[in-house]
TrEMBL record:
Signal peptide: 1-19
Pfam families: His_Phos_1
InterPro entries in UniProt: His_Pase_superF_clade-1, His_PPase_superfam
The protein's name: Histidine phosphatase family protein
Key word Transmembrane helix present: no
Assigned keywords, A-Z: Signal
Statement: the UniProt record of this protein carries the keyword Signal: yes
Gene3D superfamilies: Phosphoglycerate mutase-like
Amino acid sequence: MLRLALALFLFAVPTLAHATDAGWALLRDGGHVVLLRHAFVTGTTDPANFDIGNCASQLNLSERGKQQSSRIGALFAARAAPIERVLSSRYCRCLDTARIAFEAEPEPFEPLDLLKTDPAEKAAQMEAVMKEIRGYSGSDNLVLVTHLENIEALTGVTPREGEAVVVAPEGDGLKVLGRVTF
């Protein structure tokens, strides 16, 4: 069993490195949309007294998450990946990831908040994000900082905390062009 786990790990490492290199190549060229999952947080779920306007009532970035956010920004700069605009979920962990990484104030964009449970509200939320993505035509990159569930619903992939997924519109959905892990 241990040998199987080790073999799978050794097989996956080059794949992740390749995926990251391909993702950086896309980002250096600019003109792409990046779905960025927020960096590492302090727990697993928001407290019962959650308030979108009060960071003290939410999961927040851990020290590791703050360091990861700094690393994200440093790598975007070192890899010459131009950023035109940063939109973020209104949750503090997403806003802080964006602020630390890109050293700018992100634009809060409510459709990037955690997915609604009501199917009609969820569909409207996803359509608002898709409209933003379809409408993007800049020469630099558009970064959307959001949550695991949102990226899964949009792409079918499960990114790690702080992972970037480079996407493009394709038909009614999105095509994953590359991924970058930090």
